[in-house]
Q: What sequence folds into this?
């Protein structure tokens, strides 16, 4: 239903709500239906309508009305982000509607439960409710709404990386949409299949679906969908190695994101452009888009800061008003109690004393916890800052060396990579967890800079287990870099040209296990100065581990060792690090 038609129907229902005042099932149905269409307006206006529907339903023992009202509450709480309340109301509705055998309203209940658990990233629970909805509509005729239930199942399967199962449900959604002649559903299914096949690295199939989605978006001038389609096509062209088409597609996405002022997506598109030009050895263009990437990043950061300030001001004013209302209410209650219960003044005084003592206790405790949290965060940032000075000094000396030798192109490449890396370190240091993809990219840039500085005296390999979702799984930043630095600066011999550093990332239980292996001299063969540096770096890392482990259920683990042959000959150093992963 388009926006105009929805507004007309909403106004029509509102007129009925305003004129029909009988407290019966008809009014309950009107109230619930009105809240369903009213979700695009002020959500809080729905609360008195839902309360009235629930009150009437209980008064006339209208069980279906009670279930529908609880569903309306669950929808309201889902949209407000109060997920626990959404789940509670939906489960109450489910217990009533299952007894009634009301499949139509059970679809709403299961949908609310699925969305709530999906928000909590409890995908198995969400999937069970979405699959239940698919079973409920299985025997029905194909319809546009039926396709939506298959979309939700597919989306959840994608989150848990069951891509073949996701494909089955997306294809079914496409089939249903075609049979129902549901153009929007067809476009959504084809776009989703394009993204899925790109994720599965089946780029030719992905291109076919994404081009259809782009054609639909252009026909109806859906700018956001057009940009998303171009971004998807860009990833496919990169996967196929066609960098020229990737550049053109990504440029189209950039143009639209500029028009929409979508800074977050624009930043990602600029980074893609930078990486494409870097692969094409066009460093002048690469630097241009790297600057654009940083400028947009600064704009996002500024907007976020302004948004936080405005949110805090609004919250403060709201809490201030609520406190004043609550204070007046409390005073009124106390006066009433004094009039009615003059003989119980001692009890009231005792209750007041306990209340004030409790508030004071919790305030002091909360303040103490907050101070400790700030202290811990500052300690962590301070420790991170100790990890970089040695590297920065060497990097700047290398740039100076290139310039003295009149190797301007080499100096430009080095400076661009160094600038990008420094920005990554600054951005990552503000976060407690970053994605595996961001950490690996930072490490690649870090080692590339050292390779340039040392005249390609070593190579490196990064092996990532397929079970790791590099975009979703996150780890604390800057834990791996000090050990890579030790391998380069103190493990590998500067006289050799066959140095090798291997980074192996695998999933193990609740951890991501990271191995840093080099073919250098081993721990025992380092000089006194090198040993002191390694000792200092290890001490800093262990202090960071201790700080993190105070708040982590699964503790970070670190083991230092040497790689030895069967004869006991030292072949290098191996650092084993286990860090818990969380979902961003």
A:
């Amino acid at each position: 239903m388009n926006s105009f038609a929805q507004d007309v129907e909403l106004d029509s229902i509102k007129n009925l709500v305003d004129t029909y005042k009988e407290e019966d099932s008809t009014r309950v149905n009107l109230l619930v239906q009105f809240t369903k269409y009213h979700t695009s307006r002020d959500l809080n206006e729905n609360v008195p309508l839902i309360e009235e529907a629930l009150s009437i339903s209980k008064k006339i023992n209208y069980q279906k009305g009670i279930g529908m009202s609880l569903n309306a509450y669950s929808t309201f709480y889902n949209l407000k982000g109060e997920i626990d309340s959404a789940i509670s109301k939906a489960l109450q509705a489910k217990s009533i509607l299952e007894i009634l055998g009301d499949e139509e309203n059970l679809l709403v209940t299961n949908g609310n439960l699925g969305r709530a658990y999906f928000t909590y990233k409890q995908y198995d629970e969400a999937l069970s409710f979405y699959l239940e909805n698919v079973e409920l509509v299985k025997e029905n005729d194909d319809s546009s709404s039926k396709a939506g239930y298959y979309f939700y199942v597919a989306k959840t399967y994608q989150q848990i990386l069951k891509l073949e199962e996701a494909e089955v449900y997306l294809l079914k959604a496409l089939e249903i949409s075609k049979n129902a002649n549901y153009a929007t559903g067809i476009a959504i299914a084809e776009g989703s299949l394009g993204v899925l096949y790109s994720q599965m690295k089946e780029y030719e199939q992905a291109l076919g679906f994404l081009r259809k989605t782009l054609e639909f978006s252009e026909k109806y001038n859906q700018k956001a969908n057009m940009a998303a389609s171009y971004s998807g096509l860009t990833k496919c062209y990169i996967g196929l190695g066609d960098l020229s088409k990737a550049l053109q597609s990504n440029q189209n996405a950039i143009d639209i994101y500029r028009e929409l002022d979508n800074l977050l997506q624009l930043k990602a598109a600029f980074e893609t452009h930078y990486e494409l030009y870097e692969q094409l050895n066009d460093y002048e263009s690469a630097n241009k888009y790297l600057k654009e990437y940083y400028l947009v990043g600064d704009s996002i950061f500024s907007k976020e800061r302004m948004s936080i300030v405005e949110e805090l001001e609004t919250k403060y004013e709201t809490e201030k008003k609520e406190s004043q209302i609550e204070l007046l209410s409390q005073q009124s209650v106390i006066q009433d109690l004094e009039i009615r219960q003059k003989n119980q003044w001692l009890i009231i005084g005792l209750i007041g004393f306990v209340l004030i003592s409790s508030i004071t206790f919790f305030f002091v405790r909360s303040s103490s916890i907050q101070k400790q949290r700030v202290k811990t965060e500052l300690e962590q940032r301070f420790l991170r800052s100790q990890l970089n000075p040695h590297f920065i000094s060497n990097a700047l000396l290398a740039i100076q060396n290139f310039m003295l030798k009149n190797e301007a192109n080499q100096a430009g490449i080095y400076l661009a990579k160094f600038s990008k890396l420094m920005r990554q370190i600054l951005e990552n240091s503000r976060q407690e967890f970053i994605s595996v993809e961001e950490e690996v990219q930072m490490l690649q840039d870090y080692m590339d800079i050292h390779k340039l500085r040392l005249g390609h005296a070593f190579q490196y390999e990064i092996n990532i287990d397929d079970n790791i979702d590099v975009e979703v799984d996150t780890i604390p930043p800057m834990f791996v870099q000090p050990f890579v630095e030790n391998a380069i600066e103190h493990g590998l011999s500067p006289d050799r040209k066959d140095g090798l550093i291997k980074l192996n990332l695998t999933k193990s239980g609740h951890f991501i296990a990271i191995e840093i292996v080099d073919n250098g001299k081993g721990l025992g063969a380092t000089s006194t100065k090198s040993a002191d540096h390694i000792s200092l770096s290890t001490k800093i890392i262990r202090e960071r581990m201790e700080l993190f482990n105070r708040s982590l259920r699964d503790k970070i683990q670190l083991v230092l060792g040497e790689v030895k042959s069967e004869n006991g000959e030292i072949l290098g150093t191996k650092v084993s690090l286990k860090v818990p992963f969380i979902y961003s």
Confidence is low (pLDDT under 50) at residues 1-8, 304-309. Residues 7-100 form one domain.
